[in-house]
Amino acid sequence: MTFSAASVTVGTGPVSFADVVAVARQGAPITLDPTALEGVTATRRIIDALAEDVDPHYGISTGFGALATTFITADRRAQLQASLVRSHAAGSGPEVEREVVRALMLLRLSTLMTGRTGVRPATAQTYAALLNAGITPIVREYGSLGCSGDLAPLAHCALAIMGEGEVRDAAGTWLHAGDALRAAGIEPVVLAEKEGLALINGTDGMLGMLVLALDDLGRLLTTADIAAAMSVEALLGTDATFAADLQALRPQLGQARSATNLRALLAGSPLLASHAGPEDPTVQDAYSLRCSPQVHGAARDTADHAALIAGRELESAVDNPVVTLDGRVESNGNFHGAPVGYVLDFLAIAAADVASMSERRTDRHLDASRNKGLPPFLAHEVGVDSGLMIAQYTAAGIVSELKRLAAPASVDSIPSSAMQEDHVSMGWAAARKLRKSIDGLGRVLAIEIMTAARSLDLRAPLLPGPATAAVRDLVRTVAEGPGHDRFLSPEIEAIVGLVQTGAVRDAAARIAPTLG
């Protein structure tokens, strides 16, 4: 893992979106705020006092879930906490991506540092030490119902700070957690009262994936505008419909941003100028061209709403029981993932629809009855060559999958824990499918950009505008221009990389710096 130079301080307030991305994707190191650690110490004193009380207190001197009324004597409580973590580390399936686990761990650490969970400072410090050493617990795909927190994923992380379970080191090598901690000079934690619960009760997994998804969508929705602009231009459409006064008649914020992008991207286009004016026989463009600001803009507004919910969740101290500001230890339901689950599902709908519109634009490039003079399938030698025919099949197959992934997970509650936990959010599942949706969206946009770039080349000697030409030229660094059929898959994958890393957006933004 490559570590970034900038450090993220945890405990001075909520971690930011940028903090999550920096730690999860760039390996930014973590420091713990000393004042916040003092608050953690003060709260721990409350837990220690309750541990000595003869009356039972949930999570401190009782069992958990349906066993909450079972009193546990002092000599068995360390075993109780360790047993909780071991039994809950019951995930199954493929490994979850390293960036997701690191985001999850940062967010749990942020909650620990609020002083509302009752852990000891040393426990928070050990959690931070794992992140700084690049040690990543192996978390499995299945195990969270998104209620009582992302229990199994968080338990796999808690198991690692105990020196148990499976991890990967900074180089990605599989190790037993105890061996990894020894190699890094980290002392395993022996959990005390309340700490097992504090380490596994949170929405951190689904929230981490939401923040990462919003980071991706920030690139992809601008890239969708770029792809649409290239298609409008190459298909001899018009930019008149994107005029500011027309857009202002429907004051949707996202729509206005996308339309502004399209105007900037199409500015100075000789291709558009070649058919502009009263002699243009086109009455109006197809919806996939003309309505792109409306659809892309709705997706932007959906992302903005999701960011609002994510921002509130980043400010939260989610645990059960929780230590209140006045020192009470109270059971609560803040671990329920419904707020996060709903917006994760909402984003999957938006991703599917933006991709669906993109695929329809791709198809128009290839249809000689609709592409205004371009060869069928943009083939070099029609009949001998298939051109980009099957690239569109690939986009269509992905879009079909995205439509299935748009079915909400958050309505699919299933009871657990002997009916004590009888309604769950399935937010983790919503987040997992959204990651697939965002990957698919990037691939569909890449295929449109590849197709539009070929159409622009075939319009020569007419030239595209400066911004779209910059993207076309970038594409040509990894994919050849028009010609006889060749092996397309490597070119598609290379353009997908340009889309996902933000290189396409950056190429256009160098010419149109107002892109947003």
TrEMBL record:
Pathway: Amino-acid degradation; L-histidine degradation into L-glutamate; N-formimidoyl-L-glutamate from L-histidine: step 1/3. GO terms for cellular component: cytoplasm. It is an enzyme of class 4 (lyase). Keywords: Histidine metabolism, Lyase. Its main location: cytoplasm. Belongs to the PAL/histidase family. This is Histidine ammonia-lyase. It comes from Cryobacterium tagatosivorans.
